[in-house]
Write a structure and sequence with these properties.
207 residues; 7 helices; alpha+beta; five-stranded antiparallel sheet
């Protein structure tokens, strides 16, 4: 899969975009290619390959956020739902949603296979899922899409499992919304704060 910009530039350019419309600068097949590339090449502990992904585009994307709004309407007061629904409708305006899962059966398989590290595999599973999210996010923005990441699980899990025929052993971790940006990132470039690298990095033995 050809890269549209150098990796370091893509990492720096990755931002959160909330203002999205229901179009995409790339075809659906290219979105699938980006996600498939991540699934094939993002590493996992002991090559366990526990991450699973569902891509929802166009009407299926809208259905997803209609279902989420319906679920929260039943759980929140009218006042709180009004505020939450503004966010849901904003996400619904996008082009697609990517659901990131971890296969708990697969995690248990590797726990049983490598008993010495049994207690480590759940944490390693979360790490590889985060890497999948990051690689897909960065790659999609390099293609001209805007992206934001949401976490409305576990309240929405069962309903989405039913609607999109997701195996019950898949554990939902995040919902990635994508579309063409209609405004700048949530935090403007000149407002993004960075703690000093010197406080976060130690180097030994460098020449």
């Amino acid at each position: 899969m050809a890269s549209t910009k150098p990796f370091s530039e893509a990492v720096k350019a990755r931002r959160t975009y909330y203002a999205l419309d229901s179009s995409s600068p790339i075809p659906d097949a290219r979105i699938q290619e980006v996600v498939s590339h991540a699934i094939l090449h993002v590493p996992s502990a002991f090559n366990s390959q526990t991450s699973r992904v569902v891509i929802l585009l166009n009407d299926e994307h809208k259905k997803c956020w209609d279902l989420i709004a319906e679920i929260y309407k039943q759980q929140l007061s009218a006042e709180k739902f009004e505020h939450a629904n503004q966010r849901f409708q904003g996400f619904r305006k996008g082009y697609g949603t990517i659901l990131f899962y971890e296969d708990t059966d697969r995690v248990r398989e590797f726990q049983n296979k490598f008993k010495t590290y049994e207690d480590k595999f759940p944490g390693w599973s979360e790490q590889t899922n985060g890497m999948h999210q990051y690689v897909v996010w960065t790659a999609l923005e390099a293609e001209g899409l805007g992206v934001n990441l949401q976490h409305y699980n576990p309240l929405i899990d069962v309903r989405l499992e039913t609607e999109f025929k997701v195996p019950p052993t898949w554990s939902l971790k995040a919902q990635m919304v994508l579309g063409t940006p209609t405004d700048g990132p949530a935090v403007p470039d000149d407002k993004k704060a960075f703690d000093p690298v010197e406080d976060r990095l130690k180097v030994y033995g460098a020449k």
